[in-house]
Structure formats: C-alpha cells, structure tokens
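Before the break, one more example. Copy the sequence into your notebook; we will annotate it together after we see the structure.
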Amino acid sequence: MSDNFYTDNADLRFWVEQALDWEMLFDMSEHGATAEDRPASVRDARDSYEGVLQEIGKFAARRIAPVARQIDREGTRMENGEVIESPTFAKVFKEMKKLDLYGLCVPREQGGLNAPAVVYLAAGEMISRADVSCMTHFGFHTGVAVSLLMYALRDPRTVVKNGRVLSTPYDAVIADCVAGRAWGCMVLTESGAGSDLAQIRTAAVDAGDGVWKVNGEKIFITSGHGQYQLVLVRTEDPKKSPGLKGLSLLLVRQKIERDGKTVTNVRISNVEHKIGHNGSPTCSLVYEDSIGELIGRRGEGFELMLALMNFARLAVGFEGLGICEAALRTAREYAAQRVTMGKTIDRHEMVADMLDDMTLQVEALRALAFETAQKVERSTKLEQILKFDPPADEAARAELERRLQRVKRQARDLTPLLKYVGSERAVEMSRTAMQILGGVGYTQEALPEKLLRDALVLPIYEGTSQIQSLMALKDQLMQGLRDPRRFIVKMARANWKRVAESDPLEKQLARLFSYKYKALQTILVRIARNKLKATYDLPMGSWTDALFNEWDPKLDFAPGLLHAERLTRILADTAMARILVKYATKFPERRSRADRFMKRADLRCRAWLAEIEEHGEDLLAELQARTVEESKRSAA
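Here is what the structure looks like once it is written out:
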C-alpha cells in the first residue's frame, strides 16, 4: 500500500502543481490582506498548499486507510441517548485535530489557514480514497464553519474591512469547528420531505428576544450528533407562504447551558444501521421546544440552505473521485499480479479494456472536479468583493459584475454534472473493481465490497442523481427557450466545426457538442409540438397565453423529464471533454488522453442520443392518460 496518497498520484499532482490557476485563486483568497499577513508571492503560497496536501496525503495513507476496515466493522451505536462512535474513528479525528486541518479554507481572521477551497477539496479526494465516512465527518467541521461565514456576510452585525471579514456573530461557533472541539450538521430531511423540501412540517415559533422554539422530527441526518445544527424549519403560515417560501434557517445547539448545567436541547432518537459509511453516524433528531436562533431573514431558509447544499454537492463529487481512485488502484494492482492462462489478467483484452476505461474516467472526473471547484470559488469570492470592496471606477465595477454573472452561470452548469458523475461513477467503478477481483472481490477481506457499499449512498444524499439531472435539464431548456437564436447558432457552429475543424481534438469535441445540441433540439421540439397540439381546441385569441404563459410542468415538460438523465450524461461527457481539450492545448503531453476519452465518449453519447430520439413515446402517452383520468376523478 502507498504511504502517501498525494505523491503517488501523478494526475492529482498535475492539477495541483501545473493546471490550477493559482494566481487567480491566490488573488481572490488574499484580497484585502495586509502584506505582513499574506504569503510573499503566489509561488510561496502554492508551495505552502502543496506542503499541506503532502501531509494530508501521508496522513490519509498511513493513519486512515490501514484502519478503514476496522472503522467499518466497529460502526456507531446509541447508548443512554448518546451516539457512541467507533473508537478507531474517534482516534483518527483526535489525531486530525492535532494537525489543524479543520480550518483549511477558513480565513485566518477566524483562525483558519486561509487556503483556497480547492485545497480543502483536493484533501477531500485523498481522505475519501482512504475512507469516505471519515471525509463525510471531516466535512462537517470545515463545511459548517464556512457556511456560517457565508451567512454572516448577509448579517449587518458582521464587520468587514477592505474585503476581509474581521468578525461575525458566529465567531465562537466557527472557532469551535476550526479547533476540532465540535462540528455541525445540515438538518433538512423529514419523513415525506426528502427531495421535496416544500413538504417540511418541523415548525418554529418566535418566542421573543431572538429565541425560537422548534418542534418536529428530522431523519437521515449525517453527523447528526453535531453540536451546531443548521435546521430548515417552517416559520410562516402555510396559507400565506406555502411551500418553500415559508421556510427559514435556524442555528440550533444540541446541548445548551441552563441554570448552570449542560442539558440536552435536541434529542437523538436513533442511529441508522446502514449498508456503508459505517464510521459516519446518521441520526434521527427530535425537537421538543428546542431553542434556536434565526439565521438571515424569515422566509429565506431554502435560499440559504441551497448555498450550503451546492458546496456539499461539490464535496460529494470529490468524495466520488476518491472512491473511484481507490477502486481503480485496487483493480489495477490485483490484475497486475493475478495470473491466468499464462499471463497476468491486466493483459487479457477484456480486463485491459475495463482498466483503460476506468483510468480515462477517473482522469476526466478529476478534470471536471477541479474546473468546477475553480468556477465555484471564483464566483463566491467575486460576489464578496463586489459587495464589500467594489472598484471605485464605475466601468471596472460593471466589468467585474459581468465576470461574476458569467462565472456564476458556469459554476451553476457544472455543479450538478459533477455531483451526478462523481456519484454514479463511484458505484460503477467499485462494481467493476469487484468484477476484476472475481471471487476475492466478493469477500469482506477485499476492498471493492466496502467501496461499493460506501459508494451506494452518493447518488442519494445531498440531492439525488435524478434531482441533479432535473436541475441540468431545467437550466439547459431555459437557455434554449430564452434565446432560441443563440441556441441555433451554437448548434450550427458545432455542426460546421465537426466537418471543417483542422485540429483532430477540436473536431472530435465538436462532434460531442453536436450530439448535445441535437438532444436538446429533440426535447425542445417535442415540448413545443405538445404545446401546439394543446392550443388546437382553443380560440385563436387564447393562443399567446397558452404558448407563453400557461405552462403545466407535469405535462408540458414531460419529454424532457423522461430523458433528463440521458441528457445529463451527454452534458457531462461533453463538459469533461471540453475541459480535457482545454488543458491538452496548454499541455500537449495530455492530448492522447483527451483523444482516447472522447473516442469512448462519442460511442456513449451517440447511444444516449438514439434513446432520446427513439424511446418513450408510448410511456409518455400512458402517463398522460393516467394523469388526465386522475384529474377527471378529482373533479368529480
């Protein structure tokens, strides 16, 4: 086994040491810092970040990976109303606390290292490769601290100077998380309110003096034994503010001081027994007049939680990448040693093909992960600069705002793709690794069975793969509907480049883009055709409203909803190919890898496009008939 998960990974080192835009990341992270506080140069900062990653890579390889199976076996349990963690898991985090890792991307003014978030995410890949349940829990130290810092930027009590956050209302909480004394959790899910958060019933009432009382029950809460809970609750009258509009976000402490004693404020009623992620406790929480404080304003809870969820989805993409890396290495090492029919199985054509595809997929996923991370970080920091330290020159400010809108759109486009691909590939590659190891892979002594169990939750938590697909579909369709002319021009350009482009890489990339636009065109045409059919029986004077204003999401967008995942796979392959080509242009030694990925992606995208074009009409007709029948019964 490797003794350092950073130094043994050439592709990860390529991104950290060559490809990442450190100048941009450094400028954004150190914006407004005094000369004595900030590193002397970009190179000094990068060397420091590399040093941190080398230490984390060593810790992951030497201290986490060797005990991952033991953590899995020990699991978690309830005892006298308290969560009892795996002793080995607790020891890992005690050691991690000594390394001061929890404040990686927290500003130094709040006790952190002020590293770009991409350093934290790169660390996340390596920790996940060692044991993903450790990464999940690690994220609820740093993640909650960073989220409270983001929320503080909306709070008038926060003190900001030259773009640096000097103090916030949550400084004590952030300090606890950074020091490793405590952690937090995201508290959303209820029975009947998982993906559909509009159905949340846990309620909070204003008790005065800034105190809110919470009542209800939450389930499937990762690291739910955390002291600092970010709880999504209903604070508004459902009749006046229905659905998501009536939700607010509260900070609720699991333990509070009362009459000089520490008492339970939130009762932990259960710890789930899961297939995988056994080191990370998943809890049910009961709120019975539990005391909390409002974060932000009433009614903006979903908006605030969405910011946290988007960063969590980014982190899940890196978790998936870590599992994929572990699966690939396990399969490759076993195949290089296992001899059948006179040769090692990595020289058998079918296994060689599996390993080649896994390698290309991991490299493409890592490219998507780091590109997305840079876009998300840049948009977050630009937003902060524009709010607290905008350029005095009006033209410069307008240019900065244009850059912000552009990079926000790019980050929004890429984030669901990363969450989708990272989650799905982790499951697929763990399964492939198990197949390559054969009977050995099916035993509990081999790594693939644990990787597969751990991976299975990734397509479920922090927004299912299907939710990510619907987000990607919605954004792509709205862009096409908002500006059809621009869509047609892009499609025509892709079709022209796939024929006329002289660079083979650019030509192959154009082919993938042509599949993307053809898939979108097919869906848009079907949506428009169905809508036009619905106007036939209406007076001509009603056609405008019917076509442009009266849309039924359940019926009108059905052709898109049916093919959302197929479209997302095409979008993801196209996005990964574009990024690979971008960096192959800068680093010619990577051209062959980009070429090989795109040749495989071409076959996949053509197949998915064929399904979009040829599949589903009968199913949609059947579903529509059932919907109409149910509407008639309801009306009667």
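The chain has four domains: 1-182, 183-299, 301-463, 482-635. The mean pLDDT is 92. Try to locate both features in your own notes.
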